[in-house]
Amino acid sequence: MQYAVQTTNLTKSFGDTVAVDHVDLAVPAGAFYGFLGPNGAGKSTTIKCLTGLLRQEQGTIRILGLDPRSDDLDIKRQTGVIPEDEALFERLTGAETLTLVARVHGLAGSVAQQRRSELLTLLGLDGAAGKLVVDYSHGMRKKLALAVALLPSPRLLFLDEPFEGIDPIASHQIKELLQRFVGRGGTVFLTSHILEIIERLADHVGIIDRGRLVVQGTIAEVTAGRTLEDAFITAVGAPPAAARTLEWLG
Amino acid sequence: MKVRLLPTLAWLQWRLIVNRLREGGKRDAMEKVSRVSELVVLVILGLLALPVVLLLAIGGAVAGWMLAAGGAVVKGTVVAASAVAAVPVMWVVLRPLFSVGEARSGSTTLLRLLPVPRAVFRNLELLRSLLDPVVLAFVPPLLLLPLGMLARGAVTGGLLALAASVLLLATVAALGSTVSLAIQLVARRRGRAELVTFALIVLLSVAGFLPQLFVHGSRPRPAARSTTAIERTISGPSALPLFIRYSPAGLYGTALARAAGREPTGVAVALGFLLLTAALLTVVSQALLNRLLTSSGSGGGGGSGGVEATATWRLPGFAVPTVAVAVAEARAHMRTVRGKIAVLTPALVLALMSIAFRHQAEGPMPVRMGNMLLIFLALFGSTGMATFSVNQFAVLRGGQLLEGVLPLAVRGLLTGKLLATTAMVIMATVAGAIVLVVLGPEVRAPFVVAAALAGIAAHVTLAPVAAVLSALFPKPVELSAIGRGAQPHGLAVLINLLGTLVALAPAVALGAGAYLLTHRAWLVPAAVLGELALAILFARLALPVASRLVASRGDNITLVASGH
């Protein structure tokens, strides 16, 4: 099987805190991979290591069969990323941001113009294309970040919480767009706290907890007949039942 | 309820201060050293301020003693006490102005959602002005002055002076609160806040040169018929202009003078005015607070501009992605207050200096003054752009993360950044040079061109060093702020300044050498142009080395850019 993303013993620490602890990811090419975990589990740090924003301490990473240490630029040419934090110039307009990305990716002017126009229209940003990003709402920034990730027509998308703050109509359009992307052979590596989205879109799932990958496989293997929520809670360990605690809460 | 909240709010302020020292747990040892060194500077400044506070306190007590003694010293003492009282008054007006670009954090949102009575917010605002370290430093002298009078046996005078001090502090609190809240209201719209910040920075730059415009050269001036403000104060407060007489410090001085002269009616009038001022300001500040708490701020800035075509920018000898980075960064920088200031400052300051020098010389500008202007023009090139050049990975925030995920080699990225700041340096020096040629015709045009080229050469020479400094000392900044919030790391600025002096040396030596040997002015810019070519060559050779160091700091740059 060909893997779009493959890691072995991927480890990243910050001082005494091990954020990613010997993680072995295996994301098949053409998969829609949902990467789940509680807050602070290590999802965003993993994505930052995979996209070259952070350097792992231990382990190996292969992205589209390439080694980030030697083929960093080749990988970046074939991937689109929405990091956890807003990766946008505050003092560029939405249109200028997409122009920058197009130029860095070496897209021809007419191609860039057409893609930019289509993306801005699809995401409902055409009216705000000339506005500075600093004046965008949170949802608009997320949409622009998605446009940035999609513009170079990548083979692999890393999306960290792409639906956060997005309105239902745009969310519906983005889901369709991502499904079409995977249908044409692309790979999506997506984190989200909305399990319904993962359950609906993903065909593969990985669950990370306290830096360790606790479950990974096809969605059918992971859920084993349960809902994804049940499988998730089983994997990460449920907190004390609410009924037995907080009795003071009326 | 309100009383119970006070310790909680005091604890909140304390934790916010302490946690500032702890934040950034993900950062490495180098970054922690960088942050601690910034704090050490503040601690040293605090320690240095202690003797001043002590002297002020002793001065207050002595002033009270002298006022109670009466006689000829009273007038001088009143002037001194009024001048001291004016400092906290001016401070509470100016301090919020300096933070206009930083006042959009909305840090009180959580408190506003909690069941905190509005009266607590009002009192907190008043208290915040009084608890400002600078204002606090003036509380001991203001309170010890009446004690000094009491100690000398002037009981009535001492008590009246105590009332004046208390009312002055109340006025300071209300004034500080009013200005601070007004600034917060202004700052709720980004565009408006940035315009105010820009105007203030320009005003501050200009203010430093204004006295020089009124200083005349060697020719002795006829004695002015009008007396100075101090003389007028001594001859009687009524001789002062109205705005000084009825300012809080002026009213305080009047109250002291009348108290020392045992004129209860005069004291009562002055205290009454002070009370009225404090009450009016309190009412205004409460109205402003109510508006802040009940209306929503709109973060919007300007309207939406047009959408540009995606034509490819090209620059011979540079890759398209590198030029794209340069264009994006230059645009992004120029749209910040600091970017506009960096480009406009040389022209503005040189214009003022030229006018001031001509005014001072009362005729053609002497050569030494012209040389001074040339030195400034050359220095501004590199030092004026330090905000962007020695903090190049932190000024962009999210933009840096975007560059991190795009297919850009570190060397190409650094070159793009260098092109962006160099374009800004060229704009700044060209504008400065034009001003110099127009306003200082005595300064020979070839020398002006040479100074401009030398400034650009110094900037280019220092580019690899600036990249390394940016990687070692990245500091999150607010580029629309006036004060330290917009400044790069202090150590990086210092090294850059020293580096600029060193980098300018070859250009100065080549230019001076060419002129002294040939006495042909046009050879000077030609020689400096040669130095610029060498600077470009040096930068091309040194950037790969800097790139390796920058790449090794990649994790830290990512964490700073993402605000961790």
Structural account:
The complex is a heterodimer of chains A (250) and B (564). Chain A is α/β, with parallel strands linked by helices and 250 residues long. Chain A has two domains: 3-78 and 154-244, P-loop containing nucleotide triphosphate hydrolases (Rossmann fold, 3-Layer(aba) Sandwich); 90-152. Helices cover 37% and strands 24% of the residues of chain A. In chain A, the strands form two sheets. A six-stranded mixed β-sheet of chain A has the order 6-7-8-4-9-10, sandwiched between helices. In chain A, strands 1, 2, 3 and 5 form a four-stranded antiparallel β-sheet that branches. Chain B has two domains: 44-107 and 115-195 and 229-294, no CATH class; 320-561, no CATH class. Chain B is 76% helix and 0% strand. Chain B has helices spanning 2-22, 29-69, 73-98, 109-113, 118-130, 133-151, 155-186, 190-207, 210-213, 229-235, 242-245, 248-260, 264-294, 320-334, 337-361, 367-383, 386-389, 398-405, 410-439, 445-472, 490-518, 523-552, 554-561. In chain B, 44% of the residues are buried. The chains are: A alpha/beta (250), B mainly alpha (564). Chains A and B meet through helix 2, helix 3 and helix 4 of A and helix 14, helix 18 and helix 23 of B.
